[in-house]
Amino acid sequence: MIEILAPGPYATVQDLGRPGYAHLGVPCSGAADEASLRLANRLVGNAKEAAGIELTYGRARLAFHAGAWVAVTGAPCPLTVRSALPVGAGMGVPFWVPAGAEVRFGAPAWGLRTYLAVRGGIAVEPVLGSRSTDSLSGLGPAPLRQGSMLPVGDSGSLVEISVDLAPAGKPPPAVLRIVPGPRDDWFAPGALAELCAEPYEVSQDSNRVGVRLRGREPARAREGELPSEGMVTGAVQVPPSGQPIIFLADHPPTGGYPVIGVVRAADLPIAAQLRPGDRVRFTVRPGR
Amino acid sequence: MIRVAGEAGLLVETGSLAVSHRLDAALRASRPAGVVEIVPGPETVLVVAPGADQGLLRARLDEVLGAVLESGPESGAPPGAEPEAVVIPVVYDGEDLDSVAELAGIPVDEVIARHTGRELVVGWLGFAPGFAYLTGLDPVLHLPRLATPRTSVPAGSVAIAGPYSAIYPTASPGGWRLLGRTSTRIWDVDADPPSLLRPGTRVRFEPA
């Protein structure tokens, strides 16, 4: 069992989500920065489907009732392990947490979301095939709070841990490459250039549903709403306010505001690590 | 027209809900490789296939859409369609029943008769898991949403708003006008599929 002594500002259980149910109104959900969760699982020898913990702004404290191998990835936090035995802990390496120890996360140096994978995976009951908390629909386990107890799955059949270290990344450039469309024709000529001209500021009301931006308003060529249509993760939707929203994991499966472009899959982790107040720019150029 | 929705998505314009449903059914009956989501909407079907060759997928979608348009609606029920309408028994005692009658300018009995008198079709789902927009509602019952949404509407509430009817699958906030309630469970995460109602499902309400 892992006991949540303090969840920090917002923490949830996440895996790769529940794709395949969008036509029934179910968001995909799953880790907002999927690449970081995948890396953490790989570091402890888990299957890619294993569930981990997604912290927002760090500052969590977890008590381990049984010893476990863990790995921490994503937004880099100062890590300490309080235990009878001295334990080295760090980002991007598997380390052993002895029974009775407490893992403490500080505030991240950059980025927003930090992932903890535990060998065996977090074994809460899946809902529609996933252990992810969906903040939009409420499916899956409730967000973690003080006193939440998380069972850890069996690790007996897992392969040996074979990775020593994933070198720590630097903060990625705050540039998101987008593929224009599907509704770029709902905007005035030059609107895409407008979108890409200057950095946007990330707004305070961003969450797992979307990154809300403040900045230039791409001019519309057509008013009104579209008939509701399917939405993809990474869609840059422009509501009537003109301030774009980048859809993250918990986005609604359908929507009626036009999508001017879609963030490339490789850049979604960058979007998921943006903090309120950060500045971010769009580009339609496919290369860096 | 097929529009690009990012690296993994293609948005097929169908022009009508009926064509969306037929394309959806055809794609589910013979799912192209790599497709994880097929999301019909009133005038589109979104197809999501991460990692698939977008050119090949586009060609395949073009082909299936062509076949769907050519076969026409008279070719009978699409593959996978429900043979029978789902019958939903309703206790018509909703909080807004009287005001709906007043706004529509008809007696309460006639509201019920008009709500039960037509077979409705699930257009698409959204707003919440299992929340189906039922199309084909009698135009006399087309009324705007409540000016102030309720903070909580119980699961099983049967409601109308604009040209649609719906059944609340779970308790949630909501601005639709409540006509009554049903004990039929339309959303169950332990069932497969979890939703009784899917795009294209035909629905008939009847007084319980």
- What's the total count of β strands of chain A? 19
Helix content of chain A: under 10%
Distance between termini of chain B? Answer: 45 Å
Radius of gyration of chain A: 20 Å
Query: pLDDT under 50 segments of chain B (min length 5)?
Result: none
The pLDDT mean of chain B sits at: 94
Global structural class of chain A: mainly beta
Shape of chain B: elongated
What's the CATH superfamily of the largest domain in chain B, by name?
Cyclophilin-like
Question: What's the domain count of chain B?
Answer: 2
Q: What's the gyration radius of chain B in Å? A: 19 Å
Please report the first level of CATH classification, the CATH class of the largest domain in chain B.
Mainly Beta
Largest sheet of chain B: 4 strands, antiparallel
What name does CATH use for the topology of the largest domain in chain B? Cyclophilin
Structure description:
- The complex is a heterodimer of chains A (288) and B (208).
- Chain A has 288 residues and is mainly beta.
- Chain A has helices spanning 34-43, 191-197, 268-272, and strands spanning 2-6, 10-14, 52-56, 61-64, 68-74, 79-82, 95-97, 102-105, 113-118, 149-150, 175-180, 200-202, 210-214, 229-230, 235-237, 245-247, 254-255, 259-263, 279-283.
- Helix content of chain A is 8%, strand content 27%.
- In chain A, strands 11-18-15-16-13-12-19 form a 7-stranded mixed barrel. In chain A, strands 6-8-4-1-10 form a 5-stranded antiparallel β-sheet, with no helix packed on it.
- The model of chain A has no long low-confidence stretch (mean pLDDT 95).
- Chain B is α+β, with helices and mostly antiparallel strands and 208 residues long.
- Chain B has 2 domains: 2-70, Gyrase A, domain 2; 86-207, Beta Barrel (Cyclophilin), CATH 2.40.100.
- In chain B, strands 1-2-4-3 form a 4-stranded antiparallel β-sheet, with helices on one face. Chain B has a 4-stranded mixed β-sheet with strand order 5-13-6-7.
- In chain B, a hairpin with a 3-residue loop joins strand 3 (37-40) and strand 4.
- In chain B, helix 1 crosses helix 2 (54-71).
- The radius of gyration of chain B is 19 Å and the shape is elongated.
- The chains are: A mainly beta (288), B alpha+beta (208).
